Amino acid sequence: MHMNDEQLLRYSRHLLLEEIDVAGQEKLLGSHILIIGAGGLGSAAAPYLAAAGVGTITLVDHDKVEPTNLQRQIMHTQNSIGKSKVESGKQFLQSINPSLIINTVQEKASETLLDGLLPSVDIALDCTDNFATRHLINAACFQHQVPLVSGSALKFDGQLSVFDFREETSPCYACLFSPDEQFEEVSCASMGIFSPLVGIIGTMQAAQALQVLIGFGQPLVGRMLLWNALNTQIDEIRISRNAECLVCGSQH
Fold first, then answer.
1. Does residue 17 fall inside a structural domain?
2. Is the confidence at residue 145, as pLDDT, over 80?
3. Residues 67-90, mean pLDDT to the nearest whole number
4. Cβ-Cβ contacts under 8 Å for 61 (sequence gap 6 or more)
5. Average pLDDT, whole number, for the chain?
6. Residue 73 domain-assigned?
7. Residue 85 contacts by C-beta under 8 Å, 6 or more apart in sequence?
8. Domain range for 186
9. Which of 9, 135, 150, 226 has the most crowded Cβ, counting Cβ within 10 A?
10. What's the angle, vertex CA 221, arms to CA 226 and CA 197, rounded to 5?
């Protein structure tokens, strides 16, 4: 995909970075990103990916915008209340960068839905808020060999990792959190969430996606970043592929 003059101007600050340059920017313009979840994390990740010039974005979310969302989900405005999150998100993204293709799917992520969507995308972002959906997305991305940028945020704690299934050694989400284990499902509705936390984790998800798509630097493959907004501390844990893993382990 070759850029025209308007695009050369729009993306000029990327072109000045030798890690991106014209070739990297053209790669982005030809890329297709799947963003599952148009809430807090998706609201931060999607606008930066749209601004950065990712050619096609598919937004998946079954929810409608509610007043309680507005404290942190910056893709949605007062006027969006009652609208579907994907439609509200699409309007916002098109206002940033009208030349992109934005697809919307107002459905809950399911195995069938992901099997239909994943073959045509270059990378997926998990911006959902519950373990069951995260496990579903992880298994589907592993099966289709689509790199996955996984983020989560609750109260003052955020987590971020990249599972790049094109790499033999990359762990998956289930290597860390077994699908068998019964995790107590906690939600923002019951526990609360610090507004900028989803912005911090979501924009980091966007940054990771751009790195993986263009292929520069060292994305968080085999590493999980833990961000604590209370004491402003970043920790990192190393994660490796678990041979016993129910999703990616050698036995399965």
1. no
2. yes
3. 97
4. 36, 37, 38, 39, 42, 84, 85, 86, 89, 105, 106
5. 95
6. yes
7. 38, 39, 59, 61, 63, 64, 65, 69, 73, 75, 76
8. 31-238
9. 150
10. 30
Domain tally for the chain?
A: 1
Residues 6+ apart with CB under 8 A from 220: 160, 161, 162, 208
Q: How far apart are CA 179 and CA 160, in angstroms?
A: 18
Could you report the per-residue pLDDT of 29-76, keeping only the tens digit for each?
999 999 999 999 999 999 999 999 999 999 999 999 999 999 999 999
Q: Is residue 1 part of a domain?
A: no
Q: In the chain, pLDDT over 90 holds for what percent of residues? A: 92
Which residues have a Cβ under 8 Å from the Cβ of 204 and sit 6 or more positions away? Answer: 151, 160, 225
pLDDT confidence band for 237 (50 / 70 / 90): very high
pLDDT higher than 80, residue 169: yes
Measured between alpha carbons, how far is 231 from 189 in angstroms, rounded to an integer? 23
Give the predicted TM-score (pTM) of the model.
0.96
CATH code, 129: 3.40.50.720
CA-CA distance, 149 to 128, in Å (whole number)? 11
Q: What is the DSSP letter of 64?
A: B
* Bridge partners, 161 (sequence order): 150, 224
Q: What is the pLDDT of residue 250?
A: 80
Residue 181 lies in a domain: yes
Q: Tell me the one-letter amino acid at 107.
A: E
